[in-house]
Amino acid sequence: MKPNITKLSKFLSYVLRHKPNTIELILDKNGWTDVTDLLNKMKRFGKDMDLELLRKVVETNNKKRFSFSEDGSKIRASQGHSIDIELNYRPVAPPDILYHGTAGRFLDSILKKGLLKGQRHHVHLSKDIDTASEVGLRKGKLIVLEVLSGRMHTEGKDFFVSENGVWLTDSAEVQYLVFPNK
Ligand code: HQG
Protein backbone atom coordinates (compact mmCIF):
# COMPACT_ATOMS: atom_id res chain seq x y z
CA MET A 1 0.00 0.00 0.00
CA LYS A 2 1.25 3.51 -0.80
CA PRO A 3 2.17 5.36 2.39
CA ASN A 4 -0.05 8.33 3.18
CA ILE A 5 2.47 11.17 3.57
CA THR A 6 -0.07 13.65 4.95
CA LYS A 7 -1.26 11.23 7.59
CA LEU A 8 2.31 10.42 8.62
CA SER A 9 3.13 14.13 8.76
CA LYS A 10 0.15 14.75 11.04
CA PHE A 11 1.20 11.92 13.28
CA LEU A 12 4.73 13.31 13.39
CA SER A 13 3.38 16.76 14.36
CA TYR A 14 1.36 15.13 17.09
CA VAL A 15 4.26 13.28 18.70
CA LEU A 16 6.95 15.93 18.13
CA ARG A 17 4.82 18.88 19.28
CA HIS A 18 2.22 17.59 21.66
CA LYS A 19 2.23 13.99 22.84
CA PRO A 20 5.61 12.19 22.55
CA ASN A 21 4.41 9.80 25.27
CA THR A 22 1.95 8.20 22.87
CA ILE A 23 4.84 6.23 21.41
CA GLU A 24 7.09 6.46 24.49
CA LEU A 25 9.31 8.98 22.72
CA ILE A 26 11.62 11.24 24.67
CA LEU A 27 12.39 14.77 23.46
CA ASP A 28 15.35 16.71 24.85
CA LYS A 29 14.85 20.19 26.25
CA ASN A 30 15.14 21.70 22.79
CA GLY A 31 12.58 19.39 21.26
CA TRP A 32 15.04 17.06 19.46
CA THR A 33 14.69 13.33 19.39
CA ASP A 34 16.91 10.60 18.01
CA VAL A 35 15.89 9.57 14.48
CA THR A 36 16.62 5.87 14.96
CA ASP A 37 14.67 5.84 18.20
CA LEU A 38 11.74 7.61 16.52
CA LEU A 39 11.69 5.09 13.66
CA ASN A 40 11.82 2.13 16.04
CA LYS A 41 9.06 3.48 18.22
CA MET A 42 6.82 4.39 15.30
CA LYS A 43 7.22 0.85 13.99
CA ARG A 44 6.54 -0.64 17.40
CA PHE A 45 3.33 1.37 17.58
CA GLY A 46 2.19 0.18 14.20
CA LYS A 47 3.24 3.10 11.97
CA ASP A 48 4.95 1.99 8.83
CA MET A 49 8.00 4.23 8.65
CA ASP A 50 11.63 3.98 7.60
CA LEU A 51 14.39 6.53 7.11
CA GLU A 52 13.69 7.03 3.43
CA LEU A 53 10.03 7.70 4.08
CA LEU A 54 10.80 10.00 7.00
CA ARG A 55 13.10 12.04 4.76
CA LYS A 56 10.32 12.26 2.20
CA VAL A 57 7.80 13.42 4.82
CA VAL A 58 10.24 16.11 6.01
CA GLU A 59 11.29 17.27 2.53
CA THR A 60 7.85 17.38 0.96
CA ASN A 61 6.13 19.03 3.90
CA ASN A 62 4.36 22.12 2.58
CA LYS A 63 5.26 24.21 5.60
CA LYS A 64 8.63 22.64 6.36
CA ARG A 65 7.32 21.73 9.79
CA PHE A 66 10.22 19.43 10.72
CA SER A 67 13.97 19.72 10.60
CA PHE A 68 16.90 17.36 10.98
CA SER A 69 19.96 18.27 13.01
CA GLU A 70 23.08 19.07 10.99
CA ASP A 71 24.42 15.53 11.19
CA GLY A 72 20.99 14.07 10.47
CA SER A 73 20.87 12.05 13.67
CA LYS A 74 18.06 14.05 15.31
CA ILE A 75 14.75 15.55 14.29
CA ARG A 76 12.36 18.11 15.77
CA ALA A 77 9.30 20.17 14.89
CA SER A 78 10.28 23.74 14.01
CA GLN A 79 7.39 25.38 15.87
CA GLY A 80 3.85 24.81 17.11
CA HIS A 81 4.61 22.90 20.31
CA SER A 82 2.31 22.72 23.27
CA ILE A 83 4.78 20.77 25.41
CA ASP A 84 7.39 22.59 27.40
CA ILE A 85 10.51 22.79 25.25
CA GLU A 86 12.91 25.59 24.43
CA LEU A 87 13.45 26.16 20.71
CA ASN A 88 16.32 28.59 21.36
CA TYR A 89 15.42 30.96 18.58
CA ARG A 90 17.19 34.28 18.99
CA PRO A 91 15.13 37.47 19.07
CA VAL A 92 15.14 39.29 15.72
CA ALA A 93 13.65 42.53 14.44
CA PRO A 94 10.38 41.81 12.61
CA PRO A 95 9.10 43.59 9.51
CA ASP A 96 6.89 46.64 10.18
CA ILE A 97 3.74 44.66 9.55
CA LEU A 98 2.92 41.00 10.08
CA TYR A 99 -0.45 39.27 9.59
CA HIS A 100 -2.63 36.94 11.64
CA GLY A 101 -5.36 34.89 10.02
CA THR A 102 -8.22 33.86 12.24
CA ALA A 103 -11.94 33.18 12.20
CA GLY A 104 -14.71 35.75 12.57
CA ARG A 105 -16.10 34.08 15.67
CA PHE A 106 -12.93 34.93 17.64
CA LEU A 107 -13.07 38.61 16.76
CA ASP A 108 -15.03 39.86 19.78
CA SER A 109 -12.69 38.15 22.15
CA ILE A 110 -9.58 39.34 20.27
CA LEU A 111 -10.98 42.90 20.35
CA LYS A 112 -11.10 42.64 24.13
CA LYS A 113 -7.98 40.67 24.94
CA GLY A 114 -5.68 41.02 21.93
CA LEU A 115 -3.98 37.95 20.44
CA LEU A 116 -3.21 35.30 23.04
CA LYS A 117 -1.04 32.24 22.57
CA GLY A 118 -3.57 29.74 23.97
CA GLN A 119 -2.20 26.20 24.08
CA ARG A 120 0.88 27.04 22.06
CA HIS A 121 4.11 28.70 23.19
CA HIS A 122 3.62 31.79 21.07
CA VAL A 123 1.18 33.76 19.02
CA HIS A 124 1.88 32.79 15.40
CA LEU A 125 2.14 35.50 12.77
CA SER A 126 2.73 35.37 9.02
CA LYS A 127 4.83 37.59 6.81
CA ASP A 128 2.21 37.82 4.07
CA ILE A 129 -1.54 37.89 3.69
CA ASP A 130 -1.71 34.68 1.65
CA THR A 131 -0.05 32.61 4.37
CA ALA A 132 -2.18 34.24 7.06
CA SER A 133 -5.27 33.46 5.00
CA GLU A 134 -4.36 29.77 4.82
CA VAL A 135 -3.93 29.70 8.60
CA GLY A 136 -7.24 31.49 9.24
CA LEU A 137 -9.27 29.46 6.77
CA ARG A 138 -8.63 26.33 8.86
CA LYS A 139 -10.75 27.87 11.57
CA GLY A 140 -13.78 29.15 9.67
CA LYS A 141 -14.85 32.46 8.16
CA LEU A 142 -11.59 34.19 7.37
CA ILE A 143 -10.47 37.40 9.01
CA VAL A 144 -6.94 38.72 8.49
CA LEU A 145 -5.59 41.13 11.08
CA GLU A 146 -2.64 43.40 10.53
CA VAL A 147 -0.19 43.39 13.38
CA LEU A 148 1.98 46.47 13.93
CA SER A 149 5.01 44.36 14.68
CA GLY A 150 7.57 47.11 14.01
CA ARG A 151 5.96 49.27 16.68
CA MET A 152 5.67 46.37 19.12
CA HIS A 153 9.37 45.68 18.68
CA THR A 154 10.31 49.34 19.16
CA GLU A 155 8.25 49.29 22.33
CA GLY A 156 10.13 46.32 23.74
CA LYS A 157 8.45 43.12 22.54
CA ASP A 158 10.61 40.20 21.45
CA PHE A 159 10.02 38.47 18.13
CA PHE A 160 11.41 35.19 16.88
CA VAL A 161 11.29 33.58 13.49
CA SER A 162 11.17 29.80 13.26
CA GLU A 163 13.26 27.76 10.86
CA ASN A 164 10.24 27.55 8.60
CA GLY A 165 9.52 31.28 8.54
CA VAL A 166 6.70 31.56 11.07
CA TRP A 167 6.94 34.71 13.20
CA LEU A 168 6.46 34.15 16.91
CA THR A 169 5.79 36.49 19.80
CA ASP A 170 4.34 36.26 23.24
CA SER A 171 1.11 38.21 22.74
CA ALA A 172 -0.20 41.11 20.64
CA GLU A 173 -2.23 43.65 22.54
CA VAL A 174 -5.24 45.33 20.95
CA GLN A 175 -3.48 48.63 20.30
CA TYR A 176 -1.12 46.84 17.91
CA LEU A 177 -3.87 45.22 15.86
CA VAL A 178 -5.57 46.66 12.80
CA PHE A 179 -9.00 45.11 12.36
CA PRO A 180 -10.71 44.94 8.95
CA ASN A 181 -13.20 47.77 8.25
CA LYS A 182 -12.04 49.80 11.18
C1 HQG B 1 -7.26 32.54 18.20
C2 HQG B 1 -0.48 26.18 11.84
C3 HQG B 1 -10.12 34.23 21.01
C4 HQG B 1 -6.28 32.62 17.07
C5 HQG B 1 -0.44 27.54 11.24
C6 HQG B 1 -6.37 31.23 16.49
C7 HQG B 1 0.18 28.40 12.27
C8 HQG B 1 -8.07 33.98 20.02
C9 HQG B 1 -6.71 30.37 17.69
C10 HQG B 1 0.04 27.62 13.54
C11 HQG B 1 -7.53 34.99 20.83
C12 HQG B 1 -5.55 29.53 18.14
C13 HQG B 1 -0.76 28.37 14.56
C14 HQG B 1 -8.39 35.63 21.77
C15 HQG B 1 -5.97 34.28 19.52
N1 HQG B 1 -9.67 35.21 21.82
N2 HQG B 1 -9.35 33.61 20.12
N3 HQG B 1 -7.98 36.62 22.58
N4 HQG B 1 -6.23 35.16 20.51
N5 HQG B 1 -7.08 33.57 19.22
O1 HQG B 1 -4.09 26.80 15.95
O2 HQG B 1 -2.37 30.96 14.87
O3 HQG B 1 -0.29 23.52 10.48
O4 HQG B 1 -3.24 27.58 18.23
O5 HQG B 1 -6.63 33.63 16.16
O6 HQG B 1 0.25 27.56 10.04
O7 HQG B 1 -4.34 29.51 14.12
O8 HQG B 1 0.20 23.49 12.92
O9 HQG B 1 -3.05 29.10 16.30
O10 HQG B 1 -7.40 31.13 15.55
O11 HQG B 1 1.51 28.71 12.05
O12 HQG B 1 2.07 23.64 11.27
O13 HQG B 1 -7.05 31.26 18.74
O14 HQG B 1 -0.60 26.40 13.21
O15 HQG B 1 0.66 25.51 11.58
O16 HQG B 1 -5.32 28.52 17.19
O17 HQG B 1 -2.07 28.63 14.07
P1 HQG B 1 -3.91 27.90 16.95
P2 HQG B 1 -3.02 29.63 14.80
P3 HQG B 1 0.66 23.95 11.56
Describe how the helices and strands are arranged.
Elements: H1 5-18, E1 33-34, H2 35-44, H3 51-60, E2 66-68, E3 74-77, E4 98-103, H4 107-113, E5 123-125, H5 129-137, E6 142-147, H6 149-154, E7 159-161, E8 167-169, E9 177-178
The structure holds ligand HQG.
Description:
By secondary structure, the protein is of the alpha+beta class. The chain has two domains: 5-77, Orthogonal Bundle (Arc Repressor Mutant, subunit A); 98-178, Alpha-Beta Barrel (ADP-ribosylation fold), CATH 3.20.170. 31% of the residues lie in helices and 18% in strands. The chain has six helices and nine strands; from the N terminus they run H-E-H-H-E-E-E-H-E-H-E-H-E-E-E. Strands 1-3-2 form a three-stranded antiparallel β-sheet. Strands 4-6-9 form a three-stranded antiparallel β-sheet. Strands 5-8-7 form a three-stranded antiparallel β-sheet, with no helix packed on it. The longest helix has 14 residues, at 5-18. It is elongated. The model has no long low-confidence stretch (mean pLDDT 95). The structure holds ligand HQG. The site of ligand HQG has 18 residues, from strand 4 and helix 4.
